[in-house]
Inverse folding.
């Protein structure tokens, strides 16, 4: 039987993956290595020391690359596929005791959650580039780093708070997408398209 805290953990981790995929995976790897997370046998390799070190290094590259103009946008394009995949792995690692169809459904929801959050962060980054010439992008990126870190850490340390924070991130993502859509529609109307 899956405990409610495992659902909260899965939600927090899939949300963190929507913001910083490799950081979320690196934190999960550390948690597996420390014995805080107990994935299915097929994912135990994630907790091995070489994989943990590699994921921490890749997470550092992800964080650094997201601060560089143009490279940040290229990274967002590449992560359209990566973030949902990482979220799916994290959901399987958190909820692996569920029956097959239920697990598949929750894995799909976790992947879609990460994709939606990614869409919002990428849209916010695009809007920032258009309105500030990219000057605010590193500040947004730093906020995303902190948000992803808090989501993942709270997911393990205080799962219900992590889930609540994930809900806030999701609501913010919906608001950002609506604002970007509204802004684009207003510009089209103003230009007569």
């Amino acid at each position: 039987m899956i405990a409610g805290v495992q659902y909260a953990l899965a939600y927090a981790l899939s949300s963190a993956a929507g913001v910083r995929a490799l950081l979320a995976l690196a934190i999960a790897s550390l948690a597996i290595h420390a014995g805080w997370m107990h994935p299915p046998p097929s994912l135990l390799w994630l907790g091995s020391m070489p994989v943990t070190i590699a994921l921490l290094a890749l997470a550092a590259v992800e964080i650094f690359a997201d601060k560089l103009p143009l490279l940040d946008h290229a990274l967002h394009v590449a992560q359209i596929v990566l973030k949902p995949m990482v979220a799916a792995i994290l959901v399987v690692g958190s909820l692996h005791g569920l029956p097959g169809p239920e697990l598949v459904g929750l894995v799909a929801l976790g992947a879609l959650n990460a994709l939606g959050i990614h869409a919002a962060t990428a849209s916010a980054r695009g809007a920032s580039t258009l309105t500030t010439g990219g000057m605010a992008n590193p500040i947004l990126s730093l906020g995303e780093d902190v948000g992803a870190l808090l989501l993942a850490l709270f997911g393990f340390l205080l799962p219900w708070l992590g889930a609540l924070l994930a809900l806030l991130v999701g609501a913010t993502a919906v608001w950002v997408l609506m604002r970007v859509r509204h802004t684009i529609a207003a510009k089209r109307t103003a230009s007569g398209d």
